[in-house]
Design a protein that fits this description.
Blueprint lengths: L3 H10 L5 H7 L11 H11 L38 H7 L7 E6 L4 E6 L2
Antiparallel strand pairs: 1-2
Helix pairs in contact: 1-3
């Protein structure tokens, strides 16, 4: 990801392209291929000499912040589904196709996933 003078120069060269193409051309693309617009715009504003506060995740140039973080909470969707996202399955080392038995404890409203061997 370009910052500072290099970012300004490259974005000026790409100025005839769309905003997403400029951000991509300057390296603001996440691991999934998603354009990191917020990081790009923050870096662009800072490159123009404006000092921004340190608040907010994904701050351009801050390598200790890793983007979206798992918050370990979810909600029941309108269709009744309860989603457990990729961050959680990855943390547990679960793989696609792996099967589980669902055990429910009604009194404590607890759901257990038990791997089927």
């Amino acid at each position: 990801m370009l910052v500072g003078k290099e970012l300004l120069e490259k974005s000026k060269l790409l100025s005839k392209k769309s905003e997403d193409e400029i951000a991509r051309g300057c390296g603001y693309v996440g691991p999934s291929g998603r354009v990191l617009r917020k990081s790009f715009y923050r870096a662009l504003v800072e490159a123009k000499g404006y000092k921004l506060g340190n608040s907010g995740p994904g701050r351009a140039g801050n390598r200790s912040v890793r983007g979206r973080q798992a918050v370990f909470k979810t909600k029941v969707h309108g269709n009744g589904n309860l989603l457990i996202g990729h961050a959680y399955t990855k943390k547990l080392g679960l793989t696609p196709g792996q099967e589980f038995k669902i055990d429910i404890k009604k009194d404590s409203k607890t759901i257990y996933l038990i791997p089927i061997k």
